[in-house]
Design brief:
Largest sheet: 8 strands, mixed
Number of strands: 11
Distance between the termini: 56 Å
Structural class: alpha+beta
């Protein structure tokens, strides 16, 4: 009886796994046929389905895809191994974000070469703002944007004439007090592929 029960259990598990694989293939084909949409085109709130947004990495634009939408609040303890996801003023026209009231771009660390240009990562979102010092001395050029109704902030566009399309100038400006980072509380899980 035990052997028969084990055999039935294994058959059930195998059938369930096969059904799951067939569902995944059918879902992937449907998603591929429909195509992923830009996260900012999906509408108000955070999308519950996959979407994409462009990001800067090492001075080059790449497409980042998200399985469950762009930005979600992390529930529980925030993991220690998060990279930064910087939200900056647009560096080019059109901006990476299509939202008219909140024009912005994104910056992530350089794509590691050992991953052949593709990697998945967990990111912690920060607004990159010109500090009072950076504005006063003219070193930080900004664009006013409203990430939420009634909230207008000076998002950094350049620092000392340098574009902010890679992590290094952002972090150097933070170290010198020309930029202030504001923690958004958002944790993002995304994948970058060089084949945009």
């Amino acid at each position: 009886m035990t052997t028969r029960l084990q055999t039935v259990s294994r058959l059930f598990v195998a059938a369930a796994a096969l059904a799951g694989m067939l569902y995944a293939v059918a879902f992937a084909a449907t998603a591929d046929a429909a195509g992923l949409r830009n996260c900012t085109e999906i509408g108000a709130g955070f999308p519950r389905s996959g979407c994409w947004e462009d990001v800067w990495s090492g001075g080059v634009e790449y497409r980042m895809t998200f399985a469950t939408g762009c930005c979600t609040q992390f529930k529980g303890n925030v993991p220690d191994d998060l990279d930064n996801f910087y939200v900056i003023a647009p560096q080019d026209d059109p901006p990476q974000s299509l939202a008219a009231s909140f024009r912005h771009d994104h910056v992530v660390r350089d794509i590691p070469a050992q991953n052949h240009g593709t990697y998945s990562t967990r990111l912690h979102g920060f607004f990159v703002l010109c500090s009072a010092t950076g504005i006063t001395n003219g070193a930080c050029v900004f664009e006013l944007n409203s990430p939420a109704p009634g909230l207008t902030l000076p998002f950094a566009k350049t620092v000392n004439g340098q574009a902010l399309t890679s992590v290094e100038p952002i972090e150097a400006a933070v170290d010198t007090g020309l930029i202030t980072l504001v923690d958004t509380g958002a944790v993002i899980v995304g994948t970058i592929n060089q084949n945009k």
